[in-house]
Amino acid sequence: xxxxxxxxxxxxxxxxxxQLVRFGLAADRERLEEWTMAELRREYERFHPAQTxxxxxxxxxxxxxxxxAHH
Length: 71
What we know:
Number of domains: 1
Order of helices and strands: HHH
Largest sheet: none
Number of helices: 3
Radius of gyration: 13 Å
């Protein structure tokens, strides 16, 4: 993989980590660093408010990986 692609993947991974921490799904950034890009993207899409059917947050759902409730 070229350096440009590696840099782009790293930036996207950091974006997902920052968003998941902001959503309150994980407090441990180091633990999220161990996740794959696919796992991070899946969690982000699952809890991103724009991705819900209602157009808002879904309360009471839990993260498949962390088991924490999303409020």
